[in-house]
Design a protein that fits this description.
Blueprint (H helix, E strand, L loop, with lengths): L7 H11 L9 E7 L2 E7 L2 E5 L2 E5 L10 H20 L2
């Protein structure tokens, strides 16, 4: 639900119909897997650096109880947190 919404099938169909951009690195998973160990995390914030460009990917988990304006401000805050990290490099 944090990635696509709920109910899953309806949310994914809605996203495909309404979004006009590629989510690219918005979400996925990463971690380590071997014969005796598995440590995986869901990636909901990341950045892509190419040459002189920086793209920040963030999103929000919207539920039936969400306030759209609050969610928007949360996304902006997450973006600023990511950008502050890169300003220090």
């Amino acid at each position: 639900p944090a990635v696509a919404g709920t109910p899953k099938k309806g949310a994914i169909n809605y996203i495909k119909d309404k979004e006009t951009y590629d989510r690219s690195f918005y979400t996925g998973y990463m971690g380590m897997i071997d014969d005796n160990f598995c440590d995986i995390y869901v990636n909901i914030r990341c950045a892509k650096i190419t040459d002189e460009n920086l793209a920040v990917y963030v999103g929000g988990g919207i539920t039936k109880d969400s306030n759209p304006l609050d969610e928007w401000y949360e996304i902006l805050n997450k973006s600023q947190t990511m950008l502050r990290v890169f300003r220090q490099i």
